[in-house]
Amino acid sequence: MTSLFWKASSILGIRLGHVVHKMTPQTLVLCGPSGVGKSTLLKKLLEEFGPHFGFSVSHTTRSPREGEEHGKHYYFVTRQEMEDAINNGNFIEHAEYSGNLYGTSKTAVQDVLENGRICILDIDTQGVIQVKKTDLPAQFIFIRPPSIEDLEKRLQARGTETEESLKKRLSIAEKELKFGEIDGNFDRVIVNDDVDEAYEQLRDFMLPAINKKNGD
Length: 216
Ligand SMILES: Nc1ncnc2c1ncn2[C@@H]1O[C@H](COP(=O)(O)OP(=O)(O)OP(=O)(O)O)[C@@H](O)[C@H]1O
Fold this sequence. Notes:
The protein has nine helices and nine strands. It is of the alpha/beta class. The two termini are 30 Å apart. Bound molecules: adenosine-5'-triphosphate (ATP). Adenosine-5'-triphosphate is lined by residues 32, 34-40, 154, 157-158, 192-195, 198. One of its GO terms (molecular function) is ATP binding.
């Protein structure tokens, strides 16, 4: 149904923004360096407003891990299929990590929006640049740490990094923080120092979209 919808809208030349704007609230783009606390803040948002939000299912060329289901955790596709779809303009953003392509298709976002939910995109700065080139109506939020030292401590405390991956994440983080500081790149920059305070800011920022969805 959805892909038919997309085919029809492509044939009719309807632009993504026009289609989703009429029928949906928004898309929330959340960006910030690895370990800054995006998942922690999203967990809180979903605990409070779960039914209002949805995640789009990404595509990937990597193989499924045990327990992962096609269409639920990812759409598992071949590189050729994914490259063709990207070349046909069917993706909002995509990136290559560790030799595999990952990306968000227009259809995947549309699925969430058609269900009347605000679509959450948790993406990196390269993804933000790509989304901004589409006409998807979105709110862009950047989460930053109080300092790079804090970020390092957090990543260490999370216990998911080797010394090498930690170094790599911090070097990428420095570039991302610079991007986050540039005026106009984000609608809101939230410093995640005290997590409850950061969540209040995220919550307050999203309330108008949530209320609009409720018809207030
Ligand atoms: N305000 C905070 N103060 C201290 N620790 C925090 C704060 N927010 C999150 N953390 C902790 O920092 C670690 C990283 O947080 P989280 O996994 O949410 O980051 P992330 O941005 O989602 O990372 P990734 O992009 O790698 O998935 C976690 O151990 C989390 O509990």
